[in-house]
Each structure stands twice: as C-alpha cells, then as structure tokens.
Design goal:
Largest sheet: 3 strands, antiparallel
Structural class: alpha+beta
Number of strands: 3
Radius of gyration: 23 Å
Shape: elongated
Strand content: 5-15%
Strand order of the largest sheet: 1-2-3
Number of helices: 7
Length: about 200
C-alpha cells in the first residue's frame, strides 16, 4: 500500500499534477513511504507518542520494508496493528495537506487510530448462535459451481438509519463476497427488508 502511495506521488509529479515530490508537510525531504510514516518530523510523534516500545528507539532503515520487518520483530501483534492504523491515518492526513488541509495534532491521530482499531476488533467478534431455532429453516449449501446469496436489513432507530447486508457463499459454504451499507431511516424492519430487495 505504501509503495503504491509513493508511486502515485511520483507519477502525479511527473504528470505535473503535483509541483514536486518533496514532502508537503516538512518540505525538506522527498516523499517516500518511509519518510511519510516514520522519518518526517511532522508525523514522527504519532507512533512514538502512543506505542511505548517505540519511544527512544532509533532505527536506520533503508526503506519501508526494512522498517516493517524491524517493527514486526520489536512490537507485539496489537502494537503492530496500531502502528499500521496510525500509518493509514498519517497518509490520510498527508493527503489532506496536499489538498489544502492541515495535519492534526498527534494526540488526535492516536485517538482516532485507536477508535478505528477498536471498531475493527469489535466487528471481528464471533457471535455464537443460540440453540433456539426461530423456525424450521436450515441453511443448505448450493450445488457445486453454484452460489447462494443471503441478504438482510436492520433498523437503527437511535441512529435514525437502516442497514443492509448481503453475503455470497459457494458450494463449500465459504464466503466469497460480502457487503454492508447504511440506508435511510425507515419505520419498520419490514420496510427495511423491502428496500434490501
């Protein structure tokens, strides 16, 4: 992802869409993936300010891959996940700077990164289905080389919106595609399910 970002920056400069490849935050060095998320003085305090094992850690990495490998050795899984979300936040903020915005302070970026990561982790929680059956309907896998689409809708009264989701499974029961989307406020789940169709 970061290598693609760097290539895009350089291609935009080559096409004269960006004036140059210099960092738009510190304006002193070329914008590389390593510089963007680690070396730039404008963003250095983000990870170091929240991940204790990175404080007072100096590294001389040649590129982002070296940095990532070093971080994989140094950080616990949860810290590495936080670093990656922070890197994503930093890249979003740097993009805002390119388009006339400003960098938010490191504390705000750290808080948002932790919120995003918590939201992701909560969404990954596996729910155990109850033994109670609401009907006699049992899911069966589709025949070989066929797929089965399941969709549903929900009403979120406290948020004044609805939500729609769909999942596609193959003949082995494996999920091959899925999606969810926020919808308009509706009065009942029946109305939401009609919209989902």
């Amino acid at each position: 992802m970061l290598l693609e970002y760097w290539l895009i920056i350089h291609n935009l400069a080559k096409c004269k869409i960006l004036d140059d490849v210099m960092c738009h935050c510190c304006k002193r060095f070329a914008e590389t993936p390593l510089h963007a998320v680690w070396d730039c003085g404008a963003t250095q305090d983000v990870s170091v300010g929240s991940i204790t094992s990175l404080q007072n850690w100096s590294t001389c990495c040649h590129d982002f891959r070296d940095l990532f490998e070093s971080l994989m050795d140094r950080l616990q899984k949860e810290e590495l996940e936080l670093f990656l979300v922070q890197a994503w936040q930093i890249l979003n903020q740097r993009n805002a700077v390119i388009h006339g915005g400003h960098l938010r302070e490191p504390g705000w970026l750290n808080k948002r990164a932790e919120e995003f990561l918590d939201e992701y982790r909560n969404a990954q929680m596996v729910f155990t289905p109850s033994n109670e059956s609401s009907g006699s309907c049992i899911w069966r896998a589709p025949l070989a080389e066929e797929f089965k689409l399941k969709f549903d809708a929900a009403v979120f009264s406290n948020q004044h919106c609805s939500g729609f989701g769909a999942i596609v499974r193959n003949s082995s029961g494996e999920v091959t595609a899925g999606m969810s989307v926020k919808g308009p406020y509706v009065n009942s789940s029946k109305e939401a399910e009609v919209l989902a169709c």
